[in-house]
Specification:
210 residues, mainly beta, Immunoglobulin-like, 2 domains, four-stranded mixed β-sheet, four-stranded antiparallel β-sheet, elongated
Amino acid sequence: MTPTVINLRLVNQSDTPGELSFAIFQKNGAPGFEGPARPWLIFRKLGHGDSTAFDFTTELKVAVSDTYGNYTPQMTAEPGQKFQMIRSESGDELVQHGETTDPEVIDVWNMLEQGAIDAHCYRSGKRLYTQTNVVPQQKASFQFDDTIHIENILAVEIDHSEDFDQIMDEGAPIRLTGIASADIVVKGGGIGMSAQAYSYHLENVVMKDA
């Protein structure tokens, strides 16, 4: 499957006078692996009227890390593919090996004799999701569609950590099906009794067939 790239722009048109920070994440839909999500992208201190651009590529990659902090190279992964962490002559190695029983998911198996691993899934060069503590003879599964979730977060929570690891809540879902480019416009907010909940709308949408 040829990957495509959706060009997006986050625009702060809220009524909040100060700066806002946002996290974008996706939920893992693989059966039995619908664990808590963590940020895929974080945008810090976006002032009123400011915008920031980012890409959403349909291509996913997987990698594995061990208890020593070593990471395997990232490998392009498609739904229906099975990967295995094995012991080879050159050391522990992640290889693509066969197909999954569920054609909608990507599986990463720990086939080492001992030692747990963490399985990671990446989109657009950024870590999208991690399944931790995958023990030998067990697997991690990933399944993601084209729906992203966006959530307003407090800047004070992220100023002192480059590896922000807060668990995300529901967030506002934004479906990107068929879109080539669009603005995600933030509205609502404000201060005092007149403040409203933040809302997120797609504007200036260009469809892939246009």
